[in-house]
Amino acid sequence: MSGVIWSKFFWQDWETDHAVRLSSFAAQGLWMRMLCIAAAHDPIGYVAVAGKGLDETGLALLTGRQESEISSLLGELERNGVFSRDRQGRIYSRRMIRDARKAATARNNGKKGGNPTLSNPSGNSASDKGWHMGEDKPHKPRAKSQSEKLGNFSSSAGAQKKSDIIELKEAFIDG
Questions:
Q1: Which residue, of 10, 60, 74, 102, has the greatest Cβ tally within 10 A?
Q2: What is the domain range of residue 155?
């Protein structure tokens, strides 16, 4: 049992999933149990133990229900499109697989400092960008022009204030 110890569960997605909502309450409960299995075993997202997909017999043993009941509920879930099957017939959660792929990508990016552009899909090295890993990017402070510092004065009173400020500044610089 090497799956994840916790994962995000999107309650609204569960509530608004029409395929799940069309399923009976018992089928929804089975699907939730199947999601627990899929999260706790390898490969994550597959209703499998040790990589081997679970059939009705395996699910009946894990859930403590009759195989005939499991078979009926699985049929209902499959008709409603709640889950998918791979080429080997293993049941999997599309959402859980997507989330596992995103987590693997994020983990790999984290090993490289957390920036996905450091994986260099374009082939450019960090030195091509003018900076090196571990160093801060050089920043040039942007100089503000006199009009930006003083604001935009359009009225005559504003123009008077602007000229007073310029006179004061010149007095301090010259004096």
A1: 74
A2: 147-175
